[in-house]
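User: I've been trying to design a sequence by hand for this structure and keep getting stuck. Would you show me what you'd pick, starting by listing the structure so we're on the same page?

Assistant: Good idea, let's start from the same input. This is the structure you sent:
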């Protein structure tokens, strides 16, 4: 296994700043979180003081020879005090979760929205995705820093207040005792912590093992793989893989446990030394008659408590430091600069009836980390209303070209122009409003057919049915159990339907038509269609893209006949361009590829096209 890297990068936000961040989030979202924390601090301090003073006070009362009645009242007062404090503490603890979960979920929603709305290049940037995954982990459950930090901050404050009170108390018995106890408790904490932090220091290694285990588990449960797992007998192989990684995790845990044993032994030795010295000192004072029995008992208990507060403070600080690192990871992610302009860009309103011209001027694009440009110095001017087809082999760069046109990516060199203006100046979300697109990997949400076509709950039914008709899927939608109100997918709705790839593709075409953007982009829109549906789509292509500039990507060269211009993309650039017929006449690469394809399609199918 690869040697784990240690996290050397300095966090942008320090501990105080992260505590202030959490407090301000609670102040804005759920003030009850702060009230409950304050209440818990008060309860913890009150309980420790009551417990500390109960025995010395009783001893003192007995020493003063008070009546049994007075003694009973005194004991009852302490008992009542403790009952009240513990009841309040239990009540508060039972109510901690609600506000804290709310604050965490608010942050989680903020992060999810950011990921949904961030500039598209981030989605293809492994570094960004890794940072997103790390930030997500900070908020996944009650035990992660996004929520657990409240417990640490509350404990730290309780420990600090109690520490101060005990310090004042013990300094009356002699400053040396408090100093010695504090120093030995601190030494014990740091020595133990160094050993105990082994797991934290190796968290990357642990994270990798967890990641592998989760990955294998997820893949084993992935229903998309179910067919392959059965046909290729992949089950035993997956189990073997899981076993191998589970063994790695077991070995890792054993290594950690061995170290913890040493830390525990060290704790015991130092506690013996610390308490031995302090108790010895107190006994000496008592023997010299400098302490009353009540004082002796008070200081005796205070020594134990004092060490507990010191250790507690260091422990809380250690935990808070780790949680603060994680909170900083989250905040740094939330602060990620955007490569595109959104709200700070110039507004761009879609002009009704206007046909747009789009130009790629000397455009190159290289994917992050790639060694060569996918597209290099491409010049392409799409005229207003033009029907452009883009063809080329798999991996030639057709989709990349579309992503550049749609403003999902910005060129690494060169510029994309809309009616002669650099698109980078615009609010990119306004620019996206121009496009009605059907991508190869389409996304539908688990809503109804109507909501998916209309991209929301506000549906213009007449327009929706018109688009379903034009996309050739209206009859299929009518046949669904609840027509256009049928839910898509079964993940959220038990009564949902799973449509075939072809039906989904047509539905996505209807969605694009419903949006009615002035630029239509179709990326392999027939990939999942049967030959009849494919042929129907070609026949009505002009109707589908009426009043629009359109770009059509296909690997079926013959399907480009109905376009005004065909581009053949090869070797990172436009290898050939012209109409289908002129390119055949040219007798170059397009004609050659067309000829090869022709051999693989039946003559009848070609006629259809
Ligand atoms: P086409 O649509 O013509 O099949 P693409 O535009 O999808 O081709 O891909 C062109 C090239 O860019 C391919 O070599 C592909 O491996 C590479 N590529 C595509 N997407 C990414 C990405 N997100 N990161 C790195 N390389 C990519």
């Amino acid at each position: 296994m690869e040697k784990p890297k240690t996290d050397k990068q300095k966090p942008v936000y320090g501990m105080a700043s992260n505590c202030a961040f959490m407090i301000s989030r609670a102040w804005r979202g759920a003030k009850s979180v702060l009230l409950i924390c304050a209440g818990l601090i008060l309860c913890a301090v009150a309980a420790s003081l009551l417990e500390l003073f109960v025995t010395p006070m009783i001893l003192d009362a007995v020493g003063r020879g008070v009546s049994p009645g007075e003694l009973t009242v005194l004991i009852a007062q302490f008992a009542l005090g403790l009952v009240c404090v513990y009841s309040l503490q239990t009540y508060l603890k039972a109510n901690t979760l609600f506000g804290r979960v709310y604050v965490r979920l608010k942050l989680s929603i903020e992060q999810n929205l950011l990921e949904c709305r961030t500039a598209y290049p981030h989605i293809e940037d492994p570094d960004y995705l890794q940072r997103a995954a790390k930030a997500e982990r900070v908020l996944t459950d009650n035990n992660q820093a996004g929520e657990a930090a409240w417990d640490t901050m509350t404990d730290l404050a309780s420990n600090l207040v109690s520490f101060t009170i005990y310090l004042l108390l013990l300094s009356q018995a002699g400053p040396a005792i408090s100093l010695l106890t504090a120093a030995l408790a601190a030494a014990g904490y740091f020595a133990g912590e160094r050993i105990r932090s082994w797991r934290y220091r190796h968290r990357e290694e642990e994270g990798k093992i967890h990641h592998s285990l989760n990955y294998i588990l997820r893949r084993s449960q992935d229903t998309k793989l179910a067919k392959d797992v059965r046909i290729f007998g992949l089950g035993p192989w997956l189990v073997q893989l899981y076993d191998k990684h589970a063994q790695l995790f077991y070995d890792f845990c054993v290594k950690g446990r061995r170290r913890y044993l040493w830390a525990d032994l060290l704790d015991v030795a130092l506690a013996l030394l610390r308490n031995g010295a302090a108790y010895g000192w107190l006994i000496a004072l008592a023997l010299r008659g400098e302490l009353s029995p009540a004082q002796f008992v008070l200081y005796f208990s205070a020594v134990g408590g004092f060490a507990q507060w010191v250790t507690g403070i260091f422990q809380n600080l250690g935990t808070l430091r780790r949680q603060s690192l994680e909170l900083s990871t989250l905040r740094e992610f939330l602060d990620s600069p955007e490569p595109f302009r959104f709200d700070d860009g110039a507004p761009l309103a879609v002009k009704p009836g206007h046909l747009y011209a789009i130009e790629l001027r000397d455009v190159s694009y290289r994917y992050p980390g790639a060694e060569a440009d996918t597209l290099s110095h491409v010049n392409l001017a799409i005229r207003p209303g033009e029907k452009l087809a883009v063809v080329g082999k798999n991996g030639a760069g057709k989709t990349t070209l579309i992503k550049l046109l749609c403003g999902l990516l910005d060129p690494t060199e060169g510029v994309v122009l809309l009616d002669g203006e650099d698109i980078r100046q615009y609010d990119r979300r306004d620019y996206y409003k121009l496009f009605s697109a059907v991508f190869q990997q389409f996304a539908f949400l688990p809503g109804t057919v109507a909501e998916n076509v209309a991209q929301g709950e506000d549906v213009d039914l007449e327009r929706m049915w018109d688009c379903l008709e034009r996309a050739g899927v209206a009859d299929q939608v009518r046949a669904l159990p609840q027509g256009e109100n049928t839910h898509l997918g079964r993940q959220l709705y038990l009564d949902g339907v799973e449509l075939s790839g072809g039906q989904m593709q047509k539905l996505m075409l209807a969605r694009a038509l419903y949006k009615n953007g002035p630029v239509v982009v179709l990326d392999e829109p027939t990939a999942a269609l049967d030959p009849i549906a494919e042929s129907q789509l070609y026949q009505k292509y002009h109707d589908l893209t009426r009043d629009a500039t359109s770009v059509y990507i296909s690997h079926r060269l013959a399907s480009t006949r109905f376009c005004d211009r065909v581009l053949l993309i090869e070797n990172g650039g436009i290898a050939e361009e012209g109409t289908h017929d002129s390119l055949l006449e040219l007798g170059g690469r397009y004609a050659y590829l067309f000829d090869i394809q022709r051999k693989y399609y039946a003559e009848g199918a070609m006629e259809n096209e």
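That's my pick for every position. To get oriented when you compare it with your attempt: Strands lie at 358-365, 375-382, 387-391, 413-418, 421-422, 435-438, 519-523, 549-554, 565-570, 573-578. The longest strand covers residues 358-365.
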